[in-house]
Amino acid sequence: MTSPTEPQTAARVPSAVRLPVRPEHAGLEPYGAPQLDVPVLLNVNENPYAPSDEVVATIAAEVAAAARGLNRYPDRDFLDLRADLADFLAVESGVRVPAEQVWAANGSNEVMLHLLQAFGGPGRTALSFAPTYSMYPEYARDTATRWVEGRREDDFTLDADAAVATVREHAPSVILLASPNNPTGTALPPETVAAICEAALEIEVPVPGAEPGCAVVVVDEAYGEFRRAGTPSALELLDRYPNLAVSRTMSKAFALAGARLGYLAASREIVDALRVVRLPYHLSAVTQAVARAALAHSASLLAQVDALRAERDATVDWLRARRYQGRPLEVAASDANFVLFGRFDDRTAIWQGLLDRGVLVRVVGPDGWLRVSIGTPEEMTAFKDALVEVAGL
Ligand SMILES: *Cc1c(COP(=O)(O)O)cnc(C)c1O
Q: Sites of the modification N6-(pyridoxal phosphate)lysine (predicted)?
């Protein structure tokens, strides 16, 4: 403590400071959807159902147990958690991978950042196909990786031949494919993913002092659990493509967005490259405990997924049966827990009108479209009533 009698060092306090901000970050704002306090939140694709009391009790007990060891660093390789995640994938998709082929981080956003840190970088290119998840260009920017945006078709599907041609043209080291895609909800058929993986194997990414490497294909299945019956997971392609990584998250179907746990399944070679770039102890003991407790209740946490899929299909049908200014509304086919619909001359006005009625949706995707997340039946009724009023459907 400084006593008043002690002589004070005269510090020169500058009135303004010019920081050495990286030029590609100059003037940028942090990413994020508006977090507004309104009754009906349908803007960030969360699961509307909170964990049950039983799940909460297990999480609390496991966190208490972990707390007793918080003087120590956590398990750096978290193989127990990776084994639990592998067990879950086997049940969910029928594809069994060993724990060593699973990786996890604080949200699948961090998993994908690890992929760009391991396989991107200066002089290299990351490729995706727009419209798609708005975070992808940010992973590229933050790892000084060149960003190339290919195009999806007008119905948001991906033409396999065109995609392969784009891959060959740009020779990326990382290809990011969201399936089901955000914000469109479009899932990719396995033939398309396989064609892109084949083309990626032929790419020659220079590696100074070594043989060139192929391109890595990342299929982001953040919404995988919501896919419609008959839509396979890219996990089924894992044993054929050592350059494929399939990313998942506990944020959406698992109703655990607040826990921050994302993961992927891939070849051992890919996982080993990710272990090099992760910060030591990046996954806290508390996070590991929460995730394992939740995985022990996966059936209960995923119980509402079928209801949400049915509500999604009903929302698509309802929107398709509506007319806006004399034309039927356009509604993208969705394998996710949200629906992209439009097109509105002034989508911001529609968004604001819904917000004024307590319903928050998202202004995202090509001009004229809005995205609504699937909520509870009551929330969807509030959304539909508000939309009828605002858009005069
Ligand atoms: C929501 C979302 C994620 C999940 O992010 P987390 O970091 O796991 O919460 C990943 N990819 C896409 C396309 C998403 O929409």
A: 252
